[in-house]
Amino acid sequence: MLDTVKWTPRVLAILRIMTALLFLEHATMKFLQFPAAIPGVSYPLPAIMIVAGTIEVITALLMFVGFYTRLAAFIASGEMAAAYFMAHASQGFWPALNFGEPAILFCFIFLYLALAGGGAWALENARRPAMA
Question: Which residue ranges run through the membrane (predicted)?
Fold first, then answer.
């Protein structure tokens, strides 16, 4: 039988790390045009894209290493909620048709991380005193 008490913090950490890396990819597309430029966006970037990319870089790196995970995830969740309503909701009601599914998923995964924390392997765990 799987020991869920043992594995839950580890799987939470994997979710945190993978989500942060995927989120960072959105910033690299904005700033480095890697792995490709964002389709339909003109360069130089509009100011709102620079702000969004900066939030993505900072929060993704913090979440990746697990430092201030809850705060970074809360901010990233808010950014994704705003992104959905600014860029996708106006294109139609259904997320599958307005291409808003990734923004919604990021939003709710980040909201979960804001409440659950970074799990195992988070740098912030080193700041806590050991429980006896």
Answer: 7-24, 44-64, 71-91, 103-123
